[in-house]
Amino acid sequence: MVPPAIEFSWNASDSTPCSWFGVRCNPNNFVDELNLSNLGLSGQLGPEIAYLKHLTSIDLSNNSFSGSIPSELGNCSLLEALELSLNSFSGEVPESLGNLQNLEYLSLFSNSLGGEIPESLFRIPFLDTISLNNNGLSGSIPSIVGNMSELAYLYLDYNQLSGTIPSSIGNCSALQELYLNDNLLEGVLPDSLNNLDQLVSLFVENNNLEGRIPLGSGNCKDLHDLVLSNNMFSGGVPTGLGNCSSLTRLAAVNCNLSGHIPSSLGRLTKLKLLYLSENQLSGAIPPELGNCKVLSDLQLYGNQLEGGIPSELGLGINSSLTQVDFTRNKFTGPIPPNLCFRKQLRKLILGQNHFQGSVPSDIGNCFTLTRLILKQNNLTGTLPEFVENANLLFMDLSSNSFSGAIPSSLGNLTNITSVDLSLNKLTGHIPSELGSLVDLEALNLSHNALEGSLPSDLSGCYKLSKLDMSHNILNGTIPSSLRSLKELTILDLSENLFGGGIPTSIFQLGKLSFLQLGSNQLGGSIPPAIGLGIEAQSLRLLNLSSNRLTGHIPQELRNLKMLEHLHICCNNLSGSLEAIGELHSLTEVNVSYNAFSGPVPPALMKLVISSPSSFIGNPDLCINCHPQAGVSCQGYSTIKSCRPISRKRGYNHVYIAIIVCGSFLFAVFLVLGISCKFLRHKGREQNLLVSAEEGASSLLNQVMEATENLNDRYVIGRGAHGTVYKVTLGPTKVYALKKLAFAGFKGGNTIMIREIQTIGKVRHRNLIRLEDFWLRKEYGLLLYNYMKNGSLHDVLHETRPPLLLEWNIRYKIALGTAQGLSYLHFDCDPAIIHRDIKPMNILLDSELEPHISDFGIAKLLDESVTSTPSSMVQGTIGYMAPERAFSTKCSKECDVYAYGIVLLELVTRKKVLDPPFGGEVDIVGWVRSAWIETQDIEAIVDPSLVDEFVDSTVKEQVKDVLLVALRCTEREPSARPSMRDVVKQLMVGDSRSQSKHA
After folding, report:
1. How large is the C-alpha radius of gyration of the chain?
2. CA distance 508 to 515
3. Model-wide pTM > 0.70
4. With pLDDT > 70 as the criterion, what percentage of the chain qualifies?
5. pLDDT averaged over the chain?
6. How far, in Å, are 344, 741, 875 from residue 838 at the CA level?
7. What percent of the chain has pLDDT over 90?
8. Following CA atoms 943, 944, 946, 952 in sequence, which dihedral angle do they give, to the nearest 10 degrees?
């Protein structure tokens, strides 16, 4: 379509085009200027334009021209200005443009040009401006650029230029603006840039530059803008930048800078923007920055700065600051008062520091404030009254120690979109006034001590997409009015005291992806509405664990085709898992500790392999084993095999008779065989009393040969229960041999053999397996699989350099150990009490999976005839429960206490009797005292874990485990949880953490 201006003025019958729109002629009626910018023209620029040989200026900018730039333009030798920007020209920049020796202005920015920059452009003597930015140019910047004495403006940003910045650029003495940002440039900033004493703007951000920043040593009095961000420089902020007296913007974000912020920056009295975020800067904010009276935007987040906010900075009455971001530093002290005295503060972001005290009350009167983030500090006191904050859009005060009630004035924040008050100590009821926040999209009040019911008024927040009220003391029923929140995608009401049933109205929320109702007091059955219609089919996570639910899993659950995480453990549910078996999208399932029965559906077998503990606690749940179909029962020690049903029940009596007779005959022959063998070998092997299996004498000979008759050179450990040897019988046959010293057994060898055989029958993935044993007159030998990573004690305290233990590894060790100990206490008949739980008895395989060792050994040695009253106190100093001081009797509660200490060692990486505790204080006393006094988990845990607290779910899970440890180490045995309860608590915490990551 031809623009009207051209259609009505361009007439081919005219004797001259000089009157046409966009055309200008010189006195001789030759066209010397063509300006058709901003007309929406399209098509290609033909070579015929070169016929206009008297052209001095061409402006076709901001149109839709495509194709290549005609090389014939190089014939317009009088051309002084060529403006082709904001089009869709492609191809390369014509080399012939270098023929335009009168050219002063060249602008080709925002096209689709590629290839290298022709060197000929840099031979044009009077060229003042080169604008080639926002194209796809590649190659390097020609070093010949240094010959351009008239060049004032060079824009090469937003291309794909590589190589180094030529040092010759320092010869461009007239250069005022240099834009090289957003390329692939590498190497160092040339020192010659200090020669550019007319330079006003230097932009080199978003490249791969390195080395020290050389600027500031020359005459930089005219420099206004210096933007260096997102490079890989070294060293610190140059002190010489304080000489750049005209500087208004200094940005060096993510530049790998270290050292202190130089006080010389205080001389920059015209500075408005200072961005030094995401570096390794340390020390305090220099008070001299208070001299920067027009500083409006100060961003220092992501460093290691410390100390308080200097009063000289004037963050308050004298402040010109409108935006402040100090996130992720180590600042301390109070937040200055009078923050909004000048009514211009818009953003106050001080999160993830160590600020103390209360929030200044005038924050509630700051009507200019749009963003308030004070999360993860040590702030206390009550929340301010929000009176004049109608412009506030985002507020995050989470992870502090605020107390008292949530002020009802929060309802005055009429434009707010997100409120996070989680992880505080807030009490009282949730104010119904929150229901008036019609623009609210996210509300997080979790991890407080809020009580009462969930206000039905929240249904007025119809834009709400995330609602998290977990970890409070809320009660009553879940209001059906929540069905009005049609935008809700995340609903977390877990860890409260909600009762009644699960309201069917929740499943009318068509966008709901994550539903967390675990750890409440919900009763009744799972409503069939969960899978009816299309509303709930977007659900990806469903957590109903640790409630009082009964009945069967509704068949409608199979309609949740997008469900990935299902947690229904620790209820009273029964029936089969058939409906779950049709959910092929599931990646995680936890149905443990219910009353489910029947076979595990084939589709869930992979989950049984990856997480067998997620199916335990269902006595009647079983696995259909069909080796011929490729389904073996090996590896499923936590779930029993389904018993095959006989096709003809009448044959049962026959089978029973055959089995009984066969067993009797087998027993007779076995007794005769053993007697004969005993008589045959009595003279030859008097010292060897018994072995665990047939043919074991041969294996014993191999063991003795491999260890050179238990030579000390093979010793890998010595403990209270004996000496441990490493036995290598082949490339894949590596064992640990424990030698136990005793002299007979109080009940005779038969009873001792029975005790060891009982130990040998115990099978669990977190218990070390007894492979074989032999008894001699003076000692016994127990053969176990060798654990590559040694003991937990070695990994925590002895390995040098210390092994990096991320939280997910520590948590796996904590949970696995708890599951193994729970199995000993509740799934063995009779129950086995370990009596000596400690890190040395927790061995780690190549995957750092824990395996409890020495279970049953303490009892075995206690019943040896050599045991004395003084030796009958089993256990290790520091790990023994307080009640052991008055009784030699060991109970399950004693194991729980010792396990709690293991957890404390895992979390703190301190020994049970660490010298820094002082005096006779052990790890339990130290942790309990520190927690009561500070409630600061970062002051207690291993410092290497604090770095992971950037992920709030990690910090939350570490805190949960710490609290479990403190419950396990209560002085009163009756106050300690059972190991089965410990497993539940850890698994619920893990499912909650995973759901937040989902």
Report:
1. 39
2. 12
3. no
4. 86
5. 85
6. 59, 21, 9
7. 55
8. -150
DSSP at 884: G
Domain locations in the chain as residue ranges:
481-618, 681-785, 790-998
Instruction: Answer for the pair 986, 961: CB distance below 8 angstroms, yes or no.
Output: yes
Q: What is the mean pLDDT of residues 791-819?
A: 88
Q: Write down the pLDDT at residue 264.
A: 95
Distance between CA 835 and CA 857 in Å, rounded? 9
Q: Residue 912's pLDDT band (boundaries 50, 70, 90)?
A: confident
- Residue 367, token pair as written in the block: 């009507």
**C-alpha angle 311/312/316, rounded to 5°?**
60
Name the one residue in this structure whose structure tokens are 């040896």.
864
> What secondary structure letter does DSSP report for 499?
B
712 is catalytic: no
Q: Flag whether 838 is marked binding.
A: no
pLDDT score at 659 = 46
What average pLDDT does range 709-722 have in this prediction? 81
Amino acid present at 942: D
Q: Measure the CA–CA gap between 178 and 152, rounded to whole angstroms.
A: 8
Q: Which fold has domain 481-618?
A: 3.80.10
SS (HEC) of 912-977: CCCHHHCCCCCHHHHHHHHHHHHCCHHHCCCHHHHHHHHCHHHHHHHHHHHHHHHHHCCCCHHHCC
Give the pLDDT score at 717.
Answer: 80
Answer yes or no: are the C-beta atoms of 23 and 34 closer than 8 Å.
yes
> Which tens digit of pLDDT belongs to each residue from 916-926?
666 567 888 88
- Report CA dihedral (290, 294, 300, 301) to the nearest 10 degrees: 130
Domain boundaries 790-998, corresponding CATH code = 1.10.510.10
The position carrying tokens 């070093």 is 143
Instruction: Indicate the pLDDT class of residue 610, thresholds 50, 70 and 90.
Output: confident
Amino acid at 718: R
Out of 128, 182, 297, 836, pick the active-site residue: 836
Ramachandran quadrant class, 338 (left: phi over 0; alpha: psi -120 to 50; beta: rest): left
**CATH code that applies to domain 681-785:** 3.30.200.20
Q: Tell me if 198 sits within 8 A of 221, measured CB to CB.
A: no
The alpha carbon of 74 is separated from its chain's Cα centroid by a whole number of angstroms, namely 58
Distance CA 900, CA 965 (A): 4
Who's near 985: CB < 8 A, 6+ residues apart? 960, 964, 977
